[in-house]
Write a structure and sequence with these properties.
2 copies of one chain form a homodimer. Chain A is mostly helical and 173 residues long. Chain A has one domain: Tetracycline Repressor, domain 2 (Orthogonal Bundle). Helices cover 74% and strands 0% of the residues of chain A. The longest helix of chain A has 26 residues. The radius of gyration of chain A is 18 Å and the shape is elongated. Chain A binds a DNA duplex (30 and 30 nucleotides) through helix 1. Chains A, B: This is Transcriptional regulator, TetR family.
Chain lengths: 173, 173
DNA sequence: CAAGTTAGTGATTCATCAATTACTTCTCTA
DNA sequence: TAGAGAAGTAATTGATGAATCACTAACTTG
């Protein structure tokens, strides 16, 4: 079976999905590869045919989660009118938080992990999201786009916390 | 030695300080009580004379970190003029981030920990900080104080991330 | 159909860790 | 100065977990 066959690609994606769930629910360091395997309905050692280590699996899971946000924002940017750009971006992020909470929870965990490969992936993700939002605001002719971008990201981060701690009052206006 | 003697109180505080450092640097779940003990220059089992479990130690560390923020904000509230209230609060928080980064890093970790006692401590901390800021904004006659409070907290959360990931550009205006 | 390749697992290894136990050493003070 | 309590540790325990190894079964292709 080569890289081009879809079987192994699906298996890999299944393992990543299971890992996102288990890591988010239990915490990356506390979660065991056996738990991930159980969720993916495979044996524990089989994970290591696809990922060289538990950390490599986390990295793959983070990539998926950042791609989710970035693709979603890009899509908004392409289709949204200038006047409703920001509200469309907010809506897009709310939908991600609703449908893929685990991926955001995993990102939040990864914010404080010190391993270099993880930190770099997180920096890359944040930087790319910031770039997209800033360019979109500028294209839309929004004044003070840098500050508006910062505030957009800031509200997003508080929204994460409000969601995972189940404290809706934190976002009240 | 009773509870009123300062020796044991100091030891307890020393252990908490060591735990804040080690948990922040290494991650709560990955850090070992032996590492905390080494940092505190005591033996590993001695920790359990003061804390019934590793989790109880984390809880104590979180209490310290929230008290730091709350006391600091209360002090600002008492002494600050209305016009500079928000900038004084920002300055106070910046100083905490500068001098006690590890405590903030620990709070960030705890945001995603699912244990009930930890979640409750985090909710309590956030709720109390929000209360203080909101009351202060209202007292100062700031309009839209609820939204302003939300934005203040939001910027704080982004500032945390910007600091721990060493990405100053995230806070650029 | 034979021989290679892919998919997958059970058992094991080696290291690590939270927590307990049982012990020693130090410090007052009656 | 005896001895009671406080401060502290070494050694152990019992469990757990990432990663490896050795193996089997099922496909596929010349």
């Amino acid at each position: 079976m080569g890289k081009s066959d879809t079987t192994s690609v699906n298996r890999k994606a299944e393992i990543i999905s299971a890992a996102i769930e288990v890591f988010a629910e239990i915490g990356y360091y506390r979660a065991t590869t056996a738990q991930v395997a159980q969720r993916a309905k495979i044996s524990q050692p089989y994970i290591f045919r696809f990922f060289s280590s538990k950390e490599a699996l986390l990295l793959a899971a983070l990539e998926v989660s950042w791609t989710r946000v970035i693709d979603s924002f890009r899509k908004v940017m392409e289709s949204s009118l200038s006047e409703q750009l920001e509200s469309d971006l907010i809506r897009a992020y709310d939908e991600i938080l609703d449908s893929y909470q685990n991926e955001i929870l995993l990102q939040m965990q990864a914010q404080t992990i010190q391993e270099n490969s993880i930190r770099e992936e997180m920096r890359k993700g944040f930087e790319e999201v910031r770039r997209i939002v800033l360019d979109a605001f500028r294209d839309a002719g929004i004044p003070n786009s840098k500050e508006r971008t910062m505030l957009f990201l800031a509200r997003g981060m508080l929204c994460n916390i409000s969601t995972v701690l189940d404290m809706p009052e934190l976002m009240e206006k």
